[in-house]
Amino acid sequence: MAQRGSSRTIGTVAGAMMGVAAMLAAGGAGAQSPARPAPEGPAKGPATPSPSRPGQAAAPAPAPAYALNAADAARTPPLQPDRPVQVNLRRGQQAFFRVAPEAGQAWAVTTRRLARSTDTVLAALNEGGEVVAEDDDGGQESLASRLEIQPGDGARLIRAGVLDDSGGRFEVVLTREAVLPPPDFATTREDAANRPPLAAGQAVRVRLRRNQQAFFRLPDDRTDLIAVTRDLSQNTDTALALLDSTGRVLAENDDSERGLASVLTVSRAAEGPLLLRASLVNEGTGSFEVMLEREAPLPPPDYPATLEAARARGPLSPGQAVRIELAREGQAIFALPEGQSLTLLTRDLSENADTVLALLDAAGEQVAEDDDGGGGVASRIATSAASRPAAFVRATLLNGARGRFELVAQGAAEATPGGASTSLADAARRPTLVLGEAVRVRLEAGGEAFIALPHDGRPAQALTFDLEAEVDTELALVDENGAVLAENDDADGLASRVDVPPTPRPAFLRVKMVDEKAGSFSLVLVRPAP
């Protein structure tokens, strides 16, 4: 079984290939005694050698129960099941092991009891010294490794090392495993192409080993079809990919509106033979079902879905609300009025719908985007947030899901609720802030709001509070011409506070966001403490 190796493979493949060949040529000569097991319990310091008698040579240090290169593995006792071996590697060293015949056809190798800062990597090599399986952090302990081998994998040698060749101390243990029945699904693209296609409504149970993948041929009629994973075993996280006949990935999905399960639209894929690939995120082990579902078709959209259709339809108007139902991988695009500031938001989302709004320039290039700025999974974005003039707004659903929502266009005055205005002139025509009554204000990135102050001849204090996450306000007292009389940024954390004397009048509060971020907060006017 060919398995994808890690990009962090240690050592050189060429050296391992020559070493394995040499080991096989040696025929295992000299491998009579079993590997020296690691002592039980905590590691002990070396025993103090007894003094040598005059004229008597000191006893040589015992050889380690592992080889430091592939060629020497033929002369080193093999790993025995359930007999851990202590490994102590210096920088740049690797340990090589043969596997004892007593392990049987199916076995696993695990690292454990890692010394501090040790991060192991295990690899299984075939007869030619090529890596057929590799693992970094698949063991039970943090940074430990685990390899699982089944009949037909072609593993002839085990290589154990430390990430970045840094050296370290750990144990290697071999355990017998049950021989798994052959999978009833294809594990290669070539095998899947020669099998009958997966039928709509047909659920196939898949159990994947580490680094294994499942492949399915798709039917020719893919109208309204989606591929899904379901009934995932504990801690299983699936990924689906759509492949053409050459293996090129056309589309893929990891997490969907169904959590860690995957949903992938296959009805809009390219013509010709297609394959579905199912795998596990982080290349672990797990089981799940793969199934094709045929969804009920949606009526033709009554909204533009392309730039050309959006131009032909004309721009959105302030106060306009449009009801949208998107098919999977669908989008809605609307033209924006030239030279007019708007805030676009989504609301009334259907179950599992998570909207994304993007502003596009005249050429269709994205200039700003928002996912959850509207609260929850709704979106909110202002044309003032764009890096250059926005000509269109595009609405989609996260992960290419299917769902319904309403898109609303608000003018600048509508986008600043709570009695606040976007200009001094407008604020002068509105009621003044009432002492003790908090107002909720939302500002877009780069925006500011003005609120008139009362004429009661008494001092007061204005402050912001109940800020959304990461919101940072700046509060200023300004006169009727906009000249700043007093200002404050961070009086209480990211909240602001400014003293308001009884004169001059008219006077106004100006509040804006720091760091060009959008968000909401509360504003209140109170009497200062005596």
In short:
The chain has 530 residues and is mainly β.
Explain how this protein is built.
The chain is mainly beta and 530 residues long. The protein has 4 helices and 32 strands. The chain has helices at 13-26, 189-193, 307-313, 424-429; strands at 85-89, 95-97, 107-112, 120-125, 131-135, 146-149, 157-162, 168-176, 204-208, 214-217, 225-230, 238-243, 249-253, 263-265, 275-280, 286-294, 321-326, 332-335, 342-347, 355-360, 366-370, 380-382, 392-397, 403-411, 439-443, 448-452, 460-465, 473-479, 484-488, 497-500, 507-513, 519-526. The protein has a 4-stranded antiparallel beta sheet with strand order 1-8-3-6, with no helix packed on it. It has a 4-stranded antiparallel beta sheet with strand order 2-7-4-5, with helices on one face. Strands 9-16-11-14 form a 4-stranded antiparallel beta sheet, with no helix packed on it. Strand 12 and strand 13 form a beta hairpin. The longest helix is centred in the N-terminal third of the chain and has 14 residues, at 13-26. The chain is elongated and about 95 Å long. The protein starts with 12 loop residues before the first helix and ends with a strand. Residues 1-14, 26-36 and 39-52 have low confidence and may be disordered. Keywords: Signal. Residues 1-31 form the signal peptide. Residues 26-65 are annotated as: Disordered.
